């Protein structure tokens, strides 16, 4: 290791270079996450990871990031805002005929963009310190990015388990550079959630089972993205029109009043995914789905899960003959898994269509009872 490097100055330079590359905050921490191991083990042993087997594999690596890149002693943690200027939260959520897509997925897939910026940062550091060896991570490999971000001073862990920043809320992506340089580390921020439990209360499926603990098996984001099989019937009505992810716990969080809009054009909503009509999305074939989601995080769930989620949303939509007809036409088009959800949605639509008729009959009977006998 070169002894002439002023690591204090280098750390300041790294933070400045990170801002120049479009990150909103850069922090530095050591790699000791041993304090997280017990909570991770309890969560996994309770089965709260659901079908996400990758969470259990290599669990020892998650609490020891140094093993992911030999020689690493620090993590440079970064965050980048992704909230678009016209997110349209209420407009979409309040209209059951539209499909709600989590705001992070409205634009281009963030993984490549952040990874490239992190590599650019690594190469810039290498110009100043030839001894640098680094590896970038963006929601990849068994790395606990949120605890690293908290240790690096990017924010604190909210009761919904997301990282919260006093000046930016939670609408941001995280990324890390593992490096072999003994840079000075930053201090964690104070937890400022206090007695607030808004995120716990608002969760449609009660997935936040206690402060800081999310049972993925109940989480709408998990159910619509990571869950590969049938969505449990008890949760289907609670999904509403959410077809990819869920933002409810972030929408209700008081700290998101201070959220900053993104400066990245790549995170701007695609027209076909911004407040889309469910029936129009339902008509996509697989080729159209792949074309419309090219370069998008949505593509990773595949056409089958996309149709499964849409079927549930259509079942939850206001009853209408055209929805019922579209669902009937969709049977046998994709798979048995999708057909199961279509049948459920059809039953929901029939149930909803029958209710107004019952109300009309009750109204007619009430009128008849009030009329004179010779009317």
TrEMBL record:
Residues covered by the 4Fe-4S ferredoxin-type domain: 181-213
One Pfam family recorded for the sequence: QueG_DUF1730
Entry's cofactor comment: Binds 2 [4Fe-4S] clusters per monomer.
Residues the record marks as active site: 139
Any single GO BP term: tRNA queuosine(34) biosynthetic process
Keyword Chloroplast part of the UniProt annotation: no
Function of the protein: Catalyzes the conversion of epoxyqueuosine (oQ) to queuosine (Q), which is a hypermodified base found in the wobble positions of tRNA(Asp), tRNA(Asn), tRNA(His) and tRNA(Tyr).
EC number of this enzyme: 1.17.99.6
Cofactor requirement: [4Fe-4S] cluster; cob(II)alamin
Binding residues annotated for tRNA, in chain numbering: 228
Superkingdom to which the source organism belongs: Bacteria
Gene: queG
Similarity section: Belongs to the QueG family.
Name of the protein: Epoxyqueuosine reductase
UniProt-annotated location(s): Cytoplasm
Metabolic or biological pathway, per its Swiss-Prot or TrEMBL entry: tRNA modification; tRNA-queuosine biosynthesis
């Amino acid at each position: 290791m070169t002894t002439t490097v002023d690591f204090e100055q280098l750390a300041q330079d790294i933070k400045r270079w990170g801002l120049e590359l479009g990150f909103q905050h850069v922090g530095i921490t050591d790699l000791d996450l041993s304090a997280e191991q017990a909570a991770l083990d309890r969560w996994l042993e309770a089965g709260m990871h659901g079908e996400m087997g990758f969470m259990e594999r290599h669990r020892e690596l998650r609490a020891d990031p140094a093993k992911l890149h030999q020689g690493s002693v620090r993590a440079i943690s970064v965050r980048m805002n992704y909230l678009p200027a016209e997110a349209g939260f209420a407009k979409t959520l309040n209209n059951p005929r539209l499909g709600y897509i989590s705001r992070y997925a409205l634009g281009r897939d963030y993984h490549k963009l952040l990874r490239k910026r992190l590599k650019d940062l690594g190469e810039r550091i290498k110009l100043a310190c030839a001894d640098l060896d680094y590896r970038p991570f963006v929601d990849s490999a068994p790395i606990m990015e949120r605890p690293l971000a908290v240790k690096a001073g990017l924010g604190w862990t909210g009761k919904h388990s997301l990282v919260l920043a006093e000046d930016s809320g939670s609408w941001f992506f995280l990324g890390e550079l593992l490096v072999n340089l003994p840079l000075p580390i930053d201090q964690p921020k104070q937890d400022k959630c206090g007695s607030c439990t808004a995120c716990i209360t608002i969760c449609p499926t009660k997935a936040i089972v206690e402060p800081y603990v999310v049972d993925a098996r109940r989480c709408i984001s998990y159910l619509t993205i990571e869950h590969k099989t049938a969505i449990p019937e008890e949760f289907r009505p609670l999904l509403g029109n959410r077809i990819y992810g869920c933002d409810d716990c972030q929408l209700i969080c008081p700290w998101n009043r201070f959220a900053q809009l993104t400066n990245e054009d790549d995170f701007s909503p695609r027209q076909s995914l911004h407040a889309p009509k469910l029936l129009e999305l339902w008509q996509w074939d697989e080729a159209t789905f792949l074309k419309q989601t090219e370069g998008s995080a949505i593509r990773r769930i595949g056409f089958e899960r996309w149709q499964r989620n849409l079927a549930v949303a259509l079942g939850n939509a206001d009853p209408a003959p055209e929805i019922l007809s579209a669902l009937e036409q969709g049977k046998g088009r994709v798979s048995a898994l999708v057909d199961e959800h279509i049948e459920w949605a059809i039953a929901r639509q029939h149930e909803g269509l029958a209710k107004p008729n019952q109300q009309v009959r009750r109204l007619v009977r009430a009128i008849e009872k009030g009329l004179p006998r010779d009317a």
